[in-house]
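TA notes. Do not distribute before section.
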Amino acid sequence: MNRNNIGLDSFTLLSVIGKGSYAKVMLVKKNGRSKSYAMKILKKKHVVKTKQQVHVMTERNVLAKVQHPFIVQLHWSFQNDQKLFFVLDYCPGG
């Protein structure tokens, strides 16, 4: 699958593994793969309302560039009309 064609329908949502004031994190599997990922889901409306656009874009850009064993890796990011999605390494146990 082309990297540009990644979207919510490319994943199977398994369960909610975290919830915060800005985001919800889901355990997911990419269709056709057995590896699990953590999908961070942010509501665009909330990001704009709390004026966090710069922080969210900075988080995405830093995660996209950094490769370090102590920092989760961003594998994919995409959006739809209402939400932003970051697909990250799943680190069970915290």
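Switch to the second chain here.
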Amino acid sequence: MKALFISLQFYLFISMFAAPVFAGDPFAGSNIYVLHCVSCHGGDGRGEIAGTPSFREGRLMSRSTSELMNTVKSGRNLMPAFRGVLDEQQIDDVITYIRTFN
């Protein structure tokens, strides 16, 4: 019993320092995409406006989730920043969804 208690204490101690892990939900991401992204990126992710990148290009979609999250938060070129509009989980959800285009 004492070993179990020590193991539990160790687990709780370690979990205090663990970074949050987001598991993107592509179904939730599709709703966010329709609300905030489809007018520029199109329903199929190919881009509707000149200069809008396609989510079907390997070059763009090979970026890490962290890089893509920073782009969504801060904006880029014509794309507005979504910091304060979408929370971390919503951004992760939409990134998970756009990865399904590739």
